Amino acid sequence: MKEYRQWFRGNAEEVSGVYIAGQRVPPGTYRELGTIRSITLEREDILPASLNGRVAEYVRQPITFAEIQRQFYPHAKAG
Fold first, then answer.
1. Among 26, 39, 68, 76, which is most buried by a count of CB atoms within 10 Å?
2. Which helix (H) or strand (E) covers residue 58, if one does?
């Protein structure tokens, strides 16, 4: 069972769409499971820890039109 847990943590996003704190992920908005906390990454980066003693798990939120616009037209004015 311990080996499965280690494998799952290393491959969690492939299995269930869940990302673990410390993983490098593409830009986007991620919601921490079990909380209302969400993180928006403007570029590829590492998901932050929860700082409460448990492993933070995140799911990627669907991309919004505003995020698409920022990604492809970073110098365009809002509105």
1. 39
2. strand 57-60
